[in-house]
Amino acid sequence: MKVSLQEACRLLQSSSIVAIPTETVWGLAARYDDMIAIEKIYEAKRRPKQNPLIIHVEAFNDVVSLAKMPLPPKMEELAARFWPGPLTLVIPVDENKVPNSVRSNLPSAAFRVPDHEGARALIRAVGPLVAPSANLSGKPSATEYTAVEADFGADFPCYISSKEDESILPLHGVESTILVWTDSGDGTHFGWAIGRLGSLSLHDISAVLGDLLIERSHEVVETEKKEKKPICPGQMFRHYAPEARLDVGYTNEDIISSDTVIGFSDRIYPVASRVFPLGTSYDARACLRNLYKILRSLDENKISEAWVDARITPEDLQRDPLWRVFIDRIEKAAHKE
Ligand code: TXA
Ligand code: MG
Question: Would the CB of 3 count as within 6 Å of ligand 1?
């Protein structure tokens, strides 16, 4: 159900939750200090309690008042360069100011400033908002308000701030990139580690961070007990998955195993009776932007299996690192990880 700015404010101020548009994916919002509403988010999404939430703020200054001082090195530079935008920063916070339920009892919290006028207008009116992606836990994220309604019901309030929120996909259509301020794992130094690949390219980030960007394989750290644990708890759980079984093709030798194909509009799939076109094979951004809508449309069309064209060459990856994000999301959707 579409709601206006005024109605969204009223709902949030009375401990209800509201779906909000952002430049990445739709979010499911509550005021960050409203325990009743935060509980509703976990319940509605069926989200595990160990998976903390991102706090969406209007500007860098709002983070300063909640963070533990001093801020991590390069924090201000990252914010100045990339906010508003699809970058989430996880930093130590003042535990008296950020409720436990927002951060799943961790000493840190995640922050970002969305690059979306309507979302910022709402934050300006009611204060910082926690917002996980507006989908049932494990399902593909929502890139249209109708996808939010499909998961939570036609009566679920979706804040529409402009014609675009109603009719076009978000600018990026894939979640923000997450950087976590953390130790290097071997105890020698601290730095920013990638918690989740996302719509902001690592090329741009490493230009700002240099040596402070810690490379860690598969976003996983080893704990003192020698268990493998992701830096972002959310990475432990199933993600982006439609009901349909996905088979991923990586090379020309991989046989197209289904007559339904998720593929590129500039390639031909002679054996397929149905092709869902992501975009051209030289436009990673467009392909990512369309991905979740296509994954959802498999289920809408009651399709039980599909073959996904993931034939991305090292040259493609070199040319546009967003292809790495594409592969990451496809593999998680196919639960290859
Ligand atoms: O683009 C986005 O980031 C979207 C839009 C709505 O802003 N939001 C989003 O939220 O993707 P969600 O809840 O689906 O993903 C948040 C991720 C999870 O993987 C969670 O584990 C991680 O952020 N996270 C949140 N707080 C954290 C913390 N204190 N430490 C480590 N990871 C954290
Ligand atoms: Mg999510």
Answer: no
